[in-house]
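Researcher: First entry.
Model:
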Amino acid sequence: MTPASSTRRIVIVAFPGVQPLDVVGPAEVFSTAERLVGDSYEIEVVAETADPISPGSGGYGLVPASTIADCRGPIDTLVVAGGVGVFGAEESEPLVEWIKEAAGRSRRVTSVCSGAFLLARAGLLDGLRATSHWSVCAELGRRYPEIEVDDSPIFVNDGGIWTSAGVTSGMDLSLALVAADLGDEIALKVARWLVLFLQRPGGQAQFSTHLTARPAARPGIRELQLWIADHLDDDLRVEVLAERVSMSPRNFARSFARETGVTPGTYVEALRIEKARQSLERDSTPIESVAGSCGFGTPETMRRAFSRRLHISPAEYRARFRREPERAGAARREE
């Protein structure tokens, strides 16, 4: 069937060792939107050969719709998947050259997870800000120093090229693209159908502070980690925390960093930002009150912390990320 002129052609690039959800996740988001709005998307999975692709894990394979050689003509959105096989795919000159050429005939170019390495190898990320799965961001920056690698966001759009973090973030990115194409209402319907969160846009962190910092092996410091989370509006200077575990400030700071992988100051600030984010997403509590309850003291201190870690102010964060029910409620109150 020939697609309607308004149909957007989505081409997803796969390879041996691809992460299956990097392919299937975006495909399901766009295909669900297609079911809701007919003739809106046409999805095509391509690879170097037409042979079934063995993914990086699992006892099954993916069968591409066509080969890259047969994928001609204009593309609306080029999606380059990631996975454990990406480093082998980087060595395929035909694949890398095709991605570079195909990007030139695409309205949007995107990557999921470590697919950013293929965009980088093709020279498409030079001078741009980009992200990838947190576990490979350091390697991406080391191998391609001309890229400004940010390991925090869910996804990044710079220069019309979108890069996203690990695995499920490809679905977050795809939802954002559907919202841009078809409107927020359709994107929300897609999210509901797939039982996804719509409000997880690019500026949000890849994972919570409790996952990034290791639980300490030493019982005293491990208990202190839990205590900090419940007392974020207290005085949490190193001297105060050290006294709680009967250690000198210097010894405590070293022990905490060794046990958890982050400094006490970094840990406290990250927890405060996380609590502030949750409050800003949840309701319309004044920013001054949020800053106080989260231990920042002043809105300016919180603003600097947000800018440093999330590259966005608290007010901008609330405007972009507040949950839909609260937005609707606020709209009703303003009528």
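Researcher: Second entry.
Model:
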Amino acid sequence: MHCKNYINGEWQPSSDGATFEQRNPANLSDVTGLWPQSPVEDAVAAVEAAQAAYPAWRALTVFQRADYLKKALALMAERREAIAEVLTLENGKTIAESLTEIDAAVKEMEFQIHEAIHLCGQTAPSAQDGVFAYQTRVPLGVVSVISPWNFPFNVPGRKCTPALMAGNTVVFKPASLTPGTGEAFTQLMVDAGLPAGVFNFVTGGGSTVGGTFTTHPAIKAVSFTGSTEVGKRLNQAASANLTRTQLELGGKNPMIVLEDADLDQAATAAATAAYACAGQWCTSTSRVLVPESIAAELTQRIVEKAKALKVGHGTESDTGMGPVCGEEQLHNILEYIEIGKGEGAQLLSGGNQLTDRGMKDGCFIEPTVFGGVRPGMRIAQEEIFGPVLSIISVKDFDEAVGVANGVEFGLASAIYTNDLSRAMQFMEATDVGLAHVNMLSAYKEPQLTFGGVKNSGFGIPEAGKTGIEFFTEHKVAYIKFR
């Protein structure tokens, strides 16, 4: 890895020489790289480079831009294993999970390239004789992408591809926990031959790099994935320049399991969605809502699956769950576990930091299950972003839907039932952006949009047909020809 910024076609250190360490969450004594702790001046230089490159990039046809991105796509597939290794080293997720993320990024990128090629305008009849009227879409200019550490490769692909295909130039800030994965994505653009300044990569703090990429007057749009708190501040700062924002934020995703459901299937789905990526998907299931009549049986199955999950280094092939991504995450999750116990929830499984079997220097937490959780408890209301699952007993379907909706978030939800009527009622009532019947709360496909409601998202959602819409402006033309 370069461990440098990429600005105006050149790899370069921070202008003041400052750096920060990235540490392997499976072994915090392992420093994987020293990355530029870039000052504002470096972020400004990246924006100015993108601004200078914009006219020539915009002037290319969409097919010419696609040629560059298709080269990057081919390189992504070729480097699949190498990128996955970097991802696991920085994030901690298992190699299998990292490979799945790379594969998802390939599909996302492929869809957005072809979606841009097929992006067409619209003609309309005019009220005046001899007037041809039409509407088209044009790029915005310089746009910024600020990506998260939980999906540090897939999310940049999902955001940067439509931005570039639309004719914008990009400044990209990766999460400081996963800069090497961001560098691997950037290297694809470099090796695909993108002209200098079209794609720029800068590491550093949110208040310096992130702040500049939000408030610089040349920035026309910001696509951000991260916490709700940070997203709200970003949106407020961007509004000073009327800069559009696309915010993918937190979640507190419920799964309802009804009496007629296949309980083993539901328990497997709950455990998978709760503990994949150590519970650090924004679409992870964090609450299971179940009628009292089957609560004990379902709980027993979920606890058994949680206890059977092997926690260990993501590089080991038999690991079912890796570490959480860093010391701050470790301490926050352990604090929430103590909060849950203090609120009177029953700790049924897990709840401890793991330090045996080579894990003493890492950020490992047991898959945790709480029972006896009441809807108003903090562990049932606040995003923990870790391997902690709360099981809440309810009287009936109506109460389950009310509890599911009774949080500030609205990203994803799921229901397990064989009752078509209840399934359809749920799909109508669930207050989220992604709803599922007899499927994981985390499931998505690239041809459909991805975004939440309430405090889980803001602006035009990413992916699907709106992926490129966010990065374009409407233009209407009237042509008098007689």
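Model: Note on the second entry: Residues 253-437 form a domain with the Aldehyde Dehydrogenase; Chain A, domain 2 fold (CATH 3.40.309.10).
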